[in-house]
Amino acid sequence: MATIVNTTEEEPMLAVVRSTAELAWADAGAEVADPEVARLCAEAQQHVLAGRWLDMATLMLANADLLLLAPRLSDKDLECSLTVICNLVTEAGSEDEALEIARLICAKLTHQPGEKPTLRIKVLFSLYNLLPSLSGKALVYRKALELAAAGKAADCVVPTFKNIDAFVAYWGIGKPEQRDLFLAVTRILKDQKGMTKEYFKFLNKYLATFDGSADDADAIGAAKEEAAAAIIEFVKSSDLYQCDLLDMPAVAQLEKDEKYQPVYELLKIFLTLRLDSYLAFQTANSTLLQGYGMYW
């Protein structure tokens, strides 16, 4: 009678469940750990056979923090395990299900951003490429920016900023989503040395999303700080000679703002008035100019 030998490697998803379960129960002893590991693997296998991919994602991510923080797990092995989890979006039965799985993965990867942020961002970009929906891609990219900012890993995302306009057109996202995206980019660029022009460029993109319509009435007030920052960057720059800031509703609101009215006045002087007007402003507002590093 022939003996059947199973030579098939374990399904990658089940292997990840097994390794994560073993980490979770590592300190419990074999008598306790082995049944729990077997139970989780059996549950995972049932999800796979039934095509319950959202449930599978929930199960695989439940203890994913253990993978992310495991000192004995190499970055290569960690990346492989996380990529297996990301591949669940390709198994999903619909774009909505894939998006829900992506949300779960993003939530896990953006938790504790200070731990291996570069690797986490790399995995998010892999997830981006795997997702079928454009709205899902936009979501994942936005989460990558959040992670880069929180994890101080701007170098991982700054090179992609040159493609932002193409991304926006490709994703087909609306004005509120564009606004959030541009604001996230400006906040990353603000702290990057040698990127003043890029920072000013994205400040302008952000401010331009406010057209003064009734739809913007509740949101435009939140743009005052960035409007003032754009003015300051323009005035301080030695190689920016013209701008459209005066025509932007988000900037125009500063004219009647108690805090930022002098900044708006300074912009108006630079764009429409003469040197004597600036000298008078300088005399009256020397403390303000010094505070913004603009006293010459």
From TrEMBL:
Q: Which domain of life is it from?
A: Eukaryota
| Alphabetical list of InterPro entries matching this protein | COPS7/eIF3m
**Gene Ontology cellular-component annotations:** eukaryotic translation initiation factor 3 complex
Q: What is this protein called?
A: EIF3m
Q: What GO biological process terms are annotated to this protein in UniProt?
A: cytoplasmic translational initiation
